[in-house]
Design a protein that fits this description.
heterodimer; A: 88 residues; mainly alpha; 2 strands; elongated; B: 322 residues; 10 helices
Chain lengths: 88, 322
């Protein structure tokens, strides 16, 4: 195997690692959010939890989910591209 | 069992690709955690601040958040500008980037002067606002010149050409804006200042974009300090251009939203500048030989030859006619 192919494989592997690191971290954070939601709902004893009788818990959870996913789509993809473009 | 498999895989990957998986995983995890907290806080804040009725459980957090959005951000920006100036002074960055720090000092003083005039003599506020606005735009042009001066310091020929071109383009934009605003039925100071600001900010954005493209093309790295100035000032003028483009026909609701957005955005931009300009970082050297100066010399030589040929042609033509 020549040097160029080796370098490409290494960079591909690094990109895969970067992406998998992002995916694992994302899944853990999303899981944590679900866990907190489940804990609050269990404590409250209802599915329709509202803080101060006004702010639904579901919306707060959705906000956290959305921000995390946006982070994954922007920073995660950017980091993966950077990992591929970087020198081995 | 699974943990040891993970560890062995991690070690293998680290050795093969020099990629520290566990360390990276932890930093990414905290990054997503912060994002999630920010997302949840944003929704919380949005609901709370748009609540139509204030009643005891909501009142105190709502009061704090409203105060935060209106006052704390404004004062926070002033504090960050002061921090930037102090760090510039202590890190000896003032002498390296005098135009940028003059701009920050100007913006810092401008906010305080406007605040003072607003409370001491509200009648003078409008004229003070527009005069300082115009002055800010003119000083901002100096920042663009400085970015070019520092960025192209290793390439004197290219820097000279860029400086001349920038001078020409700024003058052209200024003249165009003045002529445009004077063509209106009634000469109004505010309209002309807005026109000038829009024209100069657009030229500044284009000039910075051209420099970034040039550096990307020749793979020249920006130093950390210069990157901070470029990012901070670039984002700031980008936001200004969007606002200036919509300012003339946007409604009151959009203006209210933009004022809050501007404060938050400006706070973020200043935080970015503070982190990049905390201390002096030497300019990075490009890993490969840069052909920029060689290309410039070739271009200059070509232009000189062209002019010489043209002169010859003219003189020949003259002698022919005489």
């Amino acid at each position: 195997m020549d040097r160029k192919s080796k370098s490409t494989i290494k960079r591909l592997l690094r990109t895969l690692l970067e992406l998998s690191a992002h995916t694992i971290a994302l899944l853990v954070v999303l899981g944590l959010i679900r866990l907190i939601q489940w804990a609050i709902e269990s404590y409250w004893g209802s599915q329709d939890v509202k803080f101060f009788d006004r702010i639904p818990l579901r919306y707060i959870v959705d906000g956290a989910d959305l921000m995390t996913l946006m982070g994954f789509l922007s920073v995660g993809v950017y980091n993966a591209i950077q990992a591929y473009r970087g020198r081995d | 069992m699974s943990f040891s498999v993970l560890r062995v895989t991690g070690q293998f990957c680290t050795r093969l690709t020099r990629f520290d998986l566990p360390k990276r995983l932890i930093s990414i995890f905290f990054f997503y955690l912060i994002l999630a907290v920010c997302g949840a806080s944003l929704v919380f804040y949005w609901y709370l601040s748009s609540a139509p009725v204030l009643y005891p459980p909501v009142f105190i957090p709502q009061l704090i958040l409203n105060f935060m959005s209106a006052q704390l951000l404004w004062w926070g920006c002033i504090v960050l500008e002061a921090v930037l100036l102090v760090r510039g002074l202590r890190g000896k960055l003032l002498s390296r980037y005098p135009a940028f720090y003059a701009y920050i000092l100007f913006v810092w003083l401008q906010a305080l002067v406007r605040f003072f005039v607003f409370h001491a003599s509200p009648r003078l506020y409008s004229s003070t606002y527009w005069f300082t606005e115009l002055l800010g735009v003119v000083i901002g042009c100096g920042v663009v010149f400085e970015v070019y001066r520092v960025g192209l310091s290793a390439y004197p020929g290219t820097a000279r050409m860029a400086r001349t071109l920038l001078c020409f383009v700024f003058l052209l934009a200024l003249t165009e804006a003045i002529v445009d605003s004077s063509n209106e039925m009634q000469w109004r100071l505010i309209v002309s200042i807005l026109e000038i600001e829009r024209a100069l900010r657009t030229v500044q954005a284009l000039a910075l974009g051209a420099l970034v493209a040039l550096f990307r093309f020749y793979s020249i790295p920006f130093g950390r300090n210069l990157r901070g100035i470029l990012l901070g000032y670039g984002l700031f003028i980008g936001e200004s251009i969007i606002w200036l483009a919509f300012a003339s026909w946007s409604g009151e609701k959009f203006s209210d939203f933009w004022v809050t957005f501007h404060q938050t955005f400006y706070f973020g931009v200043l935080s970015l500048c503070v982190t990049h300009l905390w201390s002096h970082q030497p300019q990075e050297q490009p890993e490969t030989q840069v052909m920029l100066e060689r290309d410039y010399k070739r271009l200059a030589k070509g232009a000189k030859t062209g002019i010489r040929n043209f002169r010859h042609l003219l003189s020949g033509h003259r002698s022919f006619t005489i």
